[in-house]
User: What shape does this take?
Amino acid sequence: MNKKSINNNTGFSLKLQLLALLGVVLLLAIFFAIPSQSSSSDKSIINETKYALEDTTGITKLVLGEQTLSQSKTNSSEWLMNNEFVVDEEMIASLWAIMQRIEVKKPVSESIKDEVINSFLLNGINVQVFKGDNQIRNYKVCTHEGETYAMQEESTSPYSIYIPGYYLQIRDIFDIRPYEWQDRTLLATTPNTFRSLSVSYPQNEAESFTVEFTGKTFKIKELAEADTNRIYEYLPYFSGVMGEQYVKNDKLQDSLKTISPIAIFSLNDIRSEEPQKLEIYTARGKYFVLFKNQLLLFSPQLADIILKIKSDFSKNEVE
Assistant: This one.
């Protein structure tokens, strides 16, 4: 199998792109049961070391170094990071896919064994997997001269590990920064639960508008007649409005709090008692959002789509 390279072409970090893209490919590989290229001797090593997860069913907790991913006690489909926030579903699914495809390449060479073991002390990450109170995996991963190595907690025999067909440092995937894993969903509704959407422009109130569901169709509150086709084209984007990436920049976040947003969204959905709020700002030539007292980068392409004004829905609007 040829090695595949992945290019960085979005606002996400390279590691996030790798995790998301690899997860999709590896999930397909698992679904179609692509056979491994490993020899029978490799298989005996894999069975002995047991780094890969044969099945993720029933897993309730994953510890990666100092970070803990745990299944929510109130919603089994949700995972929490350090019991602080809900993890992005795509990220956790991708991580499981990667952990199911880890394979052992070879035992460490005796000539570098001491150096590799020392690398576990320098950059090693402990990986622990639990099903309830039962610990089913407990090993360390590290990098040494471009290779990823793993070693069972009670062992002194490291093995080189890899994902077949990909050149990446598995250790770096496990070196997670919590804020990168937070759910990035900002607004979400469905055709069956939508009530109303208000879009306000503080610097241009005349073009602010509210979309309402009348029970039969949708209307723009501020327009006597609105182009319903444009409304139907617009609303599906609110099935899941997501931020691009959480940004840790207290100075920028504080500065945005002192200015008015360019747009304020308020989405009413029958599943929530309180409206979902979203404020969009511009700074440094980019779009940002303040959401639940956190700062996120926002896609300019998505901004162009959802930052419609009232006159865009007028039947008299000239194409």
About this structure: Residues 185-313 form one domain. The first helix runs from residue 14 to 31. The CA atoms of residues 36 and 127 lie 23 Å apart. The chain has eight helices and 19 strands.
